[in-house]
UniProtKB/TrEMBL annotation:
Limits of the DinB-like domain: 31-167
A Pfam family that the UniProt record links to this protein: DinB_2
Official protein name in the record: DinB superfamily protein
Source superkingdom: Bacteria
Alphabetical list of InterPro entries matching this protein: DinB-like, DinB/YfiT-like
Stretches of the chain forming a coiled coil according to its record: none
Length: 174
């Protein structure tokens, strides 16, 4: 198994830098595994009465925030998959007015949402385990901004940790 080092900052939009900085370490597979464990530990501390809590009007509930994490990871893993296979794909980032705010949350248990997160993260880890350095760093598409599978993987870790931090601070008061 290869060690997947840090991304080149030129291989992603400038705003990714914030998320890269949140992601510790120098091996993506280890960072994905560690952030998964951190997230599962955080989930285990959330009392049932807080699952549907939103810290302000118009903000997501804790359940919606974790659905968002799984959804975004699916998106970025698919984009990394396409780049690693040298398939040029333009995908709209799932946000804004077109992005469903409810997430069918009323029909989903927190256990179901946690299982979903875990399945997506394990699939992401498996995806990156199968990539060579050439696959991780392919960027020969005439698109701006430039991305690589490596930069998308590190963004995934930072994005996950960003939302865990928000949940701890704004939802759980820690």
């Amino acid at each position: 198994m290869i060690r997947i080092g840090r991304p080149n900052s030129d291989d992603a939009p400038a705003w990714y830098g914030y998320f890269f900085d949140l992601a510790p370490g120098d091996d993506l597979l280890e960072a994905l595994e560690n952030s998964k464990q951190y997230t599962l530990e955080l989930i285990s501390t959330i009392p049932a009465e807080k699952e549907d809590f939103a810290y302000a009007e118009g903000k997501w509930t804790i359940k919606q925030a974790f659905i968002h994490l799984a959804d975004e990871e699916r998106y970025y893993a698919y984009k990394a998959f396409c780049y690693s296979r040298q398939t040029n794909v333009h995908l709209e980032i799932p946000m804004g007015e077109n992005y469903a705010k409810d997430f069918n949350v009323s029909k989903r248990s927190f256990t179901n949402i946690t299982d979903d997160y875990l399945a997506v993260r394990n699939a992401t880890i498996t995806l990156f385990k199968g990539m060579s350095n050439e696959m991780l760093d392919f960027k020969n598409f005439p698109v701006t901004p430039t991305y690589t599978a490596r930069s998308l993987g590190w963004f995934t870790v930072g994005h996950n940790l960003h939302h865990c931090k928000l949940i701890k601070e704004k939802y759980l008061g820690q």
